[in-house]
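Propose amino acids for all 226 sites.
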């Protein structure tokens, strides 16, 4: 194991999967995230020797051994756990697909069919990566899922959420980054420099992403621009 891949002195928080936002006791809104990427990152970080905590939305994946897995459902539950843990980690990798919106109101009774159009009022969820803020010694990595202008949009998120690294991938009617499919990713550093990798497995993605993070961790404290 070379130095870049020796994570034995690092604590890493990984998030994976979707959040789900209940509407009534039998329904929710969510997204197509399967959690594959986040679980592979958590698994690889563990293989590199890190102490890993995985905060996971509902997925159909058997949790890796020796990894502390905390299961959540909603964005607000994910936010609460992360805020509790963030001061005890060296790095957070947010690969979860957090729902940006939730229903304004949870109905205790199942909503009955009414034979006419109904609408669902939504309110914004907290932006977890933004809310964490920054601190010396914390490396923040996020993902950007884009249907167009991936590089431009990823750069905007990198800056707005004050990230050290962002990984972007594209979604279209013919290309899906969800599940076990091969995927194309771009890894962007905090200055906007991009390395693109086409049609690679998610195991390979996890290795590439963690190698970049290993460089940042081994450089020690990340100096931030003000
Ligand atoms: N994220 C977050 N909190 C949210 C939404 C997203 O922390 N409420 C994180 C995601 O886990 C991801 C990054 O922010 O690491 C970007 O998520 P993405 O869904 O691509 O972008 P949004 O910020 O939600 O913006 P938009 O949906 O407008 O593209």
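Proposal:
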């Amino acid at each position: 194991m070379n130095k870049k891949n020796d994570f034995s002195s690092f604590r890493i928080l990984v998030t994976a999967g979707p959040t789900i936002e209940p509407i009534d006791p039998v329904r929710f809104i969510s997204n197509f995230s399967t959690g594959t990427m986040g679980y592979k990152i958590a698994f690889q970080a563990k293989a590199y020797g890190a102490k890993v905590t995985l905060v996971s939305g509902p997925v159909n994946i058997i949790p890796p051994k020796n990894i502390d897995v905390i299961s959540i459902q909603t964005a607000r539950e994910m936010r609460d756990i992360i805020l509790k843990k963030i001061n005890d980690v060296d790095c957070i990798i947010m690969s979860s697909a957090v729902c940006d919106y939730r229903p304004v109101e949870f109905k205790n009774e199942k909503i009955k069919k009414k034979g006419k159009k109904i609408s669902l009022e939504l309110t914004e969820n907290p932006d977890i990566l933004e809310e964490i803020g920054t601190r010396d010694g914390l490396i923040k990595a996020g993902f950007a899922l884009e249907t167009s202008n991936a590089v431009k949009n990823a750069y905007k998120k990198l800056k707005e959420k004050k990230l050290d690294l962002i990984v972007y991938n594209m979604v279209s009617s013919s290309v899906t980054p969800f599940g076990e499919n091969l995927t194309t990713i771009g890894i962007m550093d905090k200055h906007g420099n991009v390395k693109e990798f086409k049609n690679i497995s998610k195991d390979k993605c996890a290795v590439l992403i963690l190698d970049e993070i290993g460089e940042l961790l081994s450089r020690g404290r990340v100096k931030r621009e003000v």
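The longest strand covers residues 139-146. The first helix runs from residue 36 to 47.
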